[in-house]
């Protein structure tokens, strides 16, 4: 019955613009009384006209009042903001006027000296900026130089250590995969492994060995290679 009452209310009074929520609530209220039947439902629905029209007027008034209040608040806020801006503008004008009056009362020699001082300050600021830019440039160049020097020293260390371990020149020229942050101990460890691998390849019987002399290594050469393997 509740749904039937709601549909009847909606059909009869939808033009009031009350919305489904209000009509549904009113249908619930009528249904809860328990007096609405299929025989009297049309009569009951018609009897709701006055109540729902008054409800619609009350609702419209609340909306109208809310809109009016919102507009009034917005207007008040706008007036307050405009008043604040006006005060700021007036204050600024008075300050500028006071400044002009003060400068007007200054003796000519003071004005000249003041202008010269301001010019000197601007020149000093410009000079300081130039010096600062120069220092930053020198600092950057110095950092670049240090980085290049460190890279060169590291490269020399690797080459020197490689030669010390007996790594042949052709292998040195191929380069080594050593981490950029590796310390001397790590570099030595890596190069030791490379040296052992290269020398092991030079031993007779290794299918990947490199030729020694005229491809006929004697016992002395083999012994020398074996002894040179780094432990």
Care to describe what's here?
Keywords: Coiled coil. With about 230 residues, the chain is mainly alpha-helical. The protein has helices at about 1-15, 20-35, 40-45, 50-105, 110-165, 170-175, 185-200, 220-230. α1 (about 1-15) packs across α2 and α1 crosses α3. The longest helix is centred in the middle third of the chain and has 57 residues, at about 50-105. The termini are far apart.
Topology summary:
Blueprint: H1 2-13, H2 20-33, H3 41-47, H4 49-105, H5 108-164, H6 169-174, H7 184-201, H8 219-228
Summarize the structure.
The chain is mainly alpha-helical and 231 residues long. It has eight helices and no strands. It has a domain at 1-90.
Cα-to-Cα separation, first versus last residue: 100 Å
Shape: flat
Series of H and E elements: HHHHHHHH
Largest sheet: none
Strand content: under 5%
Number of strands: 0
Q: Which blocks of ≥5 consecutive residues have pLDDT under 50?
A: 209-217
Oligomer: single chain
Number of helices: 8
Average of per-residue pLDDT values: 78
Q: How much helix is in the residues?
A: over 70%
Question: What features would you highlight for this structure?
Answer:
single chain, 231 residues, mainly alpha, 8 helices, 78% helix, flat
């Amino acid at each position: 019955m509740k749904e039937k009452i709601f549909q009847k209310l909606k059909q009869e009074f939808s033009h009031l613009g009350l919305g489904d929520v209000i009509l549904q609530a009113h249908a619930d209220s009528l249904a809860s009384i328990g007096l609405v039947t299929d025989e009297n439902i049309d009569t009951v629905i018609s009897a709701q006209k006055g109540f729902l029209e008054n409800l619609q007027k009350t609702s419209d008034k609340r909306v109208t009042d809310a809109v009016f209040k919102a507009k009034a608040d917005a207007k008040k806020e706008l007036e307050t903001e405009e008043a604040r801006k006006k005060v700021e503008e007036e204050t600024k004008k008075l300050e500028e006027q006071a400044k002009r009056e003060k400068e007007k009362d200054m003796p000519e020699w003071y004005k000249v000296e003041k202008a010269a001082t301001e010019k000197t300050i601007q020149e000093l600021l410009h000079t300081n900026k130039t010096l600062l830019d120069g220092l930053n440039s020198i600092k950057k160049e110095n950092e670049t130089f240090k980085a290049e020097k460190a890279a060169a020293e590291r490269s020399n260390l690797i080459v020197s250590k490689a030669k010390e371990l007996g790594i042949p020149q052709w292998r040195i020229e191929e380069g080594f995969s050593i981490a950029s942050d590796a310390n001397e101990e790590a570099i030595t460890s890596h190069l030791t492994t490379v040296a052992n691998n290269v020398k092991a390849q030079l031993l007779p019987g290794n299918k990947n060995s490199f030729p020694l002399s005229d491809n006929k290594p004697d016992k002395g050469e083999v012994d020398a290679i074996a002894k040179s393997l780094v432990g």
